[in-house]
Amino acid sequence: GNRRLPIIIGMFEAQAIAIEIEKIVPNRPMTHDLFKSFAESFNFSVLEIVISDLREGVFYAKIVCTDGTQTLEVDARPSDAIAIGLRFSVPIYTFENIMSEAGIVLSESDDIEDESIIPDEEESSEGSPLEQIKKYSYDKLQEMLDDALESEDYEKAAQIRDEMNRRN
Prior knowledge:
Layout: E1 3-4, H1 11-21, H2 31-41, E2 45-55, E3 58-66, E4 71-76, H3 78-88, E5 92-94, H4 96-102, E6 104-105, H5 129-134, H6 138-150, H7 154-167
Parallel strand pairs: 2-5
Antiparallel strand pairs: 1-6, 2-3, 3-4
Helix pairs in contact: 1-3, 2-3, 6-7
């Protein structure tokens, strides 16, 4: 639908979510990747994420897990729950009363893409970082991608990866 639930989250959690959405593979597992590996090692899985409550402006979430015989709910910060839910490719739910209180409605003209991160090609100037990336060879881009991942600059890594994919 056109309803969204805006939740303010920290930089680290936003980065963890963006890494999964952009399908960037960091050199070492991040905390949420570690959670998934741990879960798989002990044969339990995540069924769904529920943004379960909103009290005094603070959102609460549950990670609904199962080992195949029992199901349990684990309390979590919404940002962590969402990052984990994305890694397990499970649905994320909330309740109508939470949407009524804190949700927003996007009009059809609203663009849900974040255009502030990577400008459109026609808006890019010759000196913009995006234009600069286009000037490098594929091998140099691969080297730059490795460096960006090593320094955990995932926004830059995503831009480089996108340019490499555009060429293939």
